[in-house]
Amino acid sequence: MSNQGFKAIPSRERGLSNSSLLSGRTLFSRTHHDASVSRSSALSENTSSILNGYAVKPSPLTILLTFLASISGFMFGYDTGYISSVLVSIGADLGGDGLSLTNREYITSATSCGALFGAIVAGTLADAWGRKPAIMGCNLLFIAGASMQCVAKTVHFMIAGRLVMGIGVGIGSLIAPLYLSELAPSKFRGRMVIINCLAITGGQLIAYALGALFSYLHITWRFLVGFSLIPSMVQLVAFLFLPDTPRYLIMVGKTNQAAEVLRKIYLDAPNDLIAANIAELSSFNSDLDLENESRLHKIWSKIKEIHTVPSNLRALIIACGLQGIQQLTGFNALMYFSGTIFEMIGFQNSIGVSCIVAGTNFVFTIVAFLVIDRVGRRRIMLWTVPGMLVSLLVCAWTFSHLDFNTDESVSVTASRAVWNLLTVVGMMSFVAFYASGLGNVPWQQSELFPQSVRGLGTSYATATNWSGSLILSMTFLTMMEKLTPSGTFIFFAFVTLASVVFIYYCYPELSGLELEETQDLLTGGFNVKKSVQMAGERKDMATKLASFQDNVTLDVV
Ligand SMILES: O[C@H]1[C@H](O)[C@@H](O)[C@H](O)[C@@H](O)[C@H]1O
Fold it and tell me: Which of 164, 167, 328, 337 could pair with 145 as two cysteines, CB 3.0-4.6 Å apart?
């Protein structure tokens, strides 16, 4: 097939934004006279939206890529999830009389430290090598890290294995949602990224459940770690045969390959439309302007671009803000320490109770999956984050009626049982509200940034996430001791209140927007009101298009 129709032209030669949208549109309408096209172009804004109309349901390739890319999410969840039961079962396997508290802390936080480092470099790697090689690179790190842990005989070697695996987790936590966002037709984008979140929470649940099962059956923890080798090998081998995202391929000028992938995503779309779409996407590609620059110069230009272009800076504030509040509102404290908390208030089976937290998290991620593209990111957040706030206050209140005496076995009186039950209900409702919104929406981060700084921007945001997770895991138990459990949960409630204000004023509705349209929206302000109005218009347009298609089908019949 000829490359002529969609030769990538540097943006400076063509002019950006609206004019480029026009060029794609005009090229398309000039070259295509199909009836279905003129009806779409009458209703749509750019070729991506027109293409979107052809994605009635996700194509087989889209489904395959979504599930295979989400293995990275599974690894993220499984690797952060199995450690709590491994720590309990290691005993003296790493030498000495068993693990000291400090060693436990080092082994646990090595993964978060590695992940923080991985997140910082991941965006730049993804831009330099491509999304697909970055996914394969993190598989190699998973495999190396897990193998090191399986054979570890000393604490130091175990920590090194956790660190190597952590770097893979950090890179994977950025690349999988980035890969999915760049691949997805915009009407499925939210759900496709949430499938990766389902894999994270599912991985955590499976790790907890297997941990409980293995310790019950007295199976060595090394098998629990070794199990993680299977999904990483599957993903590594599968990606040898799978493509990179069309947007990345266009970014590096491989337009023929991009066309091939687009054809498999939008099965019924005419070739001219795909050519026009590639021409349009190329016009957003400022990387072509830097074609002859050194790699270091390119990186520096991107760093400058993300801080000095106001719309990029706003995107950065939103992405880092959401990732920061995802962690600092305290969810992972429950994920990592719910067993400890429940033990403190007199529950016997702490691993079982931790499964309840992980299970609720997983189930409500399914709820988010079902509603995100229909209800919208902003609306979900404005409904669920206040719910988290109320649940945290309930927990603070019930904690104040409980005696946190870890040394004595507490006899369970009737009134204590009621407070215990209320505490569990408060925590489960906190987790449910979290998982329906804040647990997932921040991972839609890629849609905030334009192609040229998408890798870098998501690196900042993912690094914020891992820093928050590290801070929380290092301070939570101390906070419980110094501020009291009620005080700690009131602190989280304050952070949650501030988050509601942040979301209300700074987070526009991005559902249904093409990735290239976000930059326009964030120009001149956060434009929250305008975004809500545009979301309404897009919904109307989708309804009109659907009824138009129905009528055309009826006419044809
Ligand atoms: O989105 C995920 C998910 O909510 C996980 O359950 C949590 O452990 C992660 O920190 C978070 O990033």
Answer: 164
**What is the Cα–Cα distance from 260 to 249, expressed in whole angstroms?**
11
Q: What share of the chain is helix, strand, coil (3-state, %, to 5)?
A: 80, 0, 20
Query: 288 near 8, Cβ under 8 Å?
Result: yes
Kindly report, residue by residue over 354-364, the tens digit of the pLDDT: 788 899 999 99
User: pLDDT tens, 447-458?
Assistant: 999 988 999 999
Structural domains of the chain, with CATH: 70-242 (1.20.1250.20), 306-531 (1.20.1250.20)
> What is the reported pLDDT for 536?
82
Contacts of 307 (CB under 8 A, 6+ apart): 313, 316
Report the C-alpha gap between 408 and 334 in whole angstroms: 23
ipTM above 0.90, yes or no: yes
pLDDT at 346: 75
Ligand 1 cavity residues, CB under 6 Å: 197, 200-201, 204, 326, 332, 335, 361, 439, 443, 465, 469
User: Which residue CA neighbors atom 10 of ligand 1 most closely?
Assistant: 332
- In a mutational test of the pocket of ligand 1, which residue from 320, 326, 337, 431 has the highest number of ligand atoms less than 8 Å from its CB? 326
